[in-house]
């Protein structure tokens, strides 16, 4: 027993130390970021931490960064130098973000509107820019109460904020936080797309 006990303990300790390493590595000893693990921890997490979202290494391009998928178009565009909008990560955590604002409705150019296809195409485009999904679900009750109480201006741009399915994303760059929202599953052949660019101090980006 003594011959094998020490190597066994060493292996266990080695595996334990590997598992305790930061979630930004996808395997022990690897320096590659495990974005899928980051996404899993952030989505709907009550202790949302902005610093868990890695700074994108991609060139994000010009505001508002996203174009319509093939077979679809943007319509009724609205752009504002400054607007406030709610972003949420769980019912108990609502953030009011302010910055340069863009809202558009996404319509089909043909006869068929495919909600799931459009959402997935935008999601892929956002993730290719280094974005992370931070929320997916219905309108949280806390956000609904704030909308009813404060009646924010952005709500008038939306088809109807209450029955939507929401997907919200964050792209961090050295100078900006880019917040993106898709509202879908409507009783209409359209999807609402909102982009809000929040300028941040360089020293706050890690």
TrEMBL record:
Protein name: Lipoprotein
